Amino acid sequence: MPDPVAFEFETAKSLLRLLKKSKDGNFSAEIDDTIPLDHAPALIWSYVPATVTCTYDSTVKAWIIPGAVTCYPINSGVDANGLMQWGKNNSDGIVTGGITCTTFTPKLSEGQAAPSIGKGFYLGTIFGYNGSEQPRVLIGLPPAPAPGGGSATIEVVTDVICTPTGIEVSTVTLSGADYDNAVIRQFLALSDVTPSSYLANQGRVVKVNDAATALEFGPIVDANYTTFIALSDTPNVYGTNPYKVLTVASGSASIVFSANNITTTKSLAGGGNPNDPAYVALSLLNDETSPGNNRVYGTTSAGVKGYRTLQLTALTDFPSTTGHNGKFVKVNSGGTGLQYTGPLAAVADVTAHTISSVDLATAVSSAQTAIDDLTSQVNLLLARIRSQGLIS
Question: How far apart are CA 99 and CA 102, in angstroms?
């Protein structure tokens, strides 16, 4: 048996990246598992999905391209759908897509501003791996976009005048180059913007300066108005206004503190400022927690308010019951109240107060005779009136 060979840890890791066993038992190297040598760099396509501004990576010492996290080996083949593609091959030779990576572009000078990288595919090389064993890709810095211009022209409205006969519009024709020279594409390049840099202005807002002549950066809240009571249309002190609320003043031009007290009158008690711990809940005068059933709220004969039992004898126009046993209640002769009256007299001899059927028949017969006589007299009188022709 040959003597074992010892490797340093990093060398062993490199060998593991270089070797990958396929189905047929052979060893092959894939681009995402390979650290390229300086004399044989591994070329790949790096994909930038959208135009983005780079940020500096102080560890790698290069500009990192945010969002550019996929690279494609320059291996041609067909994918699972039979389409010709660039990309990583599996053990069956099928292109399976890209490889997760981090993409960089060189920093050309110490004072170089962060470059913008447009959307597209860029040819690059793998120069190392991160802690997750994902390749680091370096692409060349694309050239800056060429200035616009050209032969295209645009017509710009410069003046609009209303006349008695209609609206007159003045225009001027500009070429693409004229437009590019006239258009300012940076806020700091405007003539009425006083800041010359965004540095030290993080989190600040654009506002009109105190002289009202230009724009400047300033804090979101003016230093003179860091508290509510510092505003010009609000109260200027809290100390004498505990538990009060904000309301619009009578002139509708400012905010004031108001007590917002609840006052009570007549049969209600309690009140005060609902925000104040000393506030007393509203209730009836001499209210009771459980007054009981069939009781009413009213006043006593002394005028004291509270709950009382409803009784006839307690009414002011009801006479006292003392000494009136067995009597009836009736309205007095003046119609102003009630009074007691004695019971009906007892009938001692019922027979003395009855009438016999014979006497009743006689009385009825006499009444009928009288009615018949009266009828005869009326008929006779009517006959005489007819004879005189006074009635028909």
Answer: 10
Number of H helices, E strands in the chain: 3, 28
The residues spanned by each domain of the chain are: 9-139, 153-223
SS3 at position 370: helix
Say if strands 102-105 and 135-139 run parallel, antiparallel, or are unpaired: parallel
Which secondary-structure segment (H or E) carries 167?
strand 166-175
Euclidean distance between the first and the last CA atom of the chain, given in angstroms as a whole number: 168
Q: State whether the Cα torsion 192-197-201-203 is positive or negative.
A: positive
Residue 223 main-chain phi, psi, to 5 deg: -60, -25
CB–CB of 140/105 below 8 Å? yes
Q: pLDDT, tens digit, for every residue of 237-285?
A: 888 888 888 889 888 888 988 888 888 888 888 888 888 888 888 888 8
**Amino acid letter for position 225:** Y
57, β-bridge pairs? 62
Q: How many CB atoms lie within 10 A of CB 8?
A: 8
Of 321, 310, 317, nearest to 331 by C-alpha is 317
107 and 79 Cβ atoms separated by less than 8 Å: no
